[in-house]
Amino acid sequence: MTLHTTELKQGLAQLALDLTEPQLELLERYLALLVKWNQTYNLTAIRQEERMVSYHLLDSLSLVPHLAGGTRMLDVGSGGGMPGIPTAIARPDLQVALLDSNHKKTTFLRQVVLELGLPNVQVVTDRVEAYQPEQKFDRITSRAFSELSEFVKLTRHLMADDGQYVAMKGVYPYEEIALLPQGVAVSEVLPVTVPGLDAERHLVRMVLQ
Question: Model's pTM, two decimal places?
Answer without folding.
Answer: 0.95
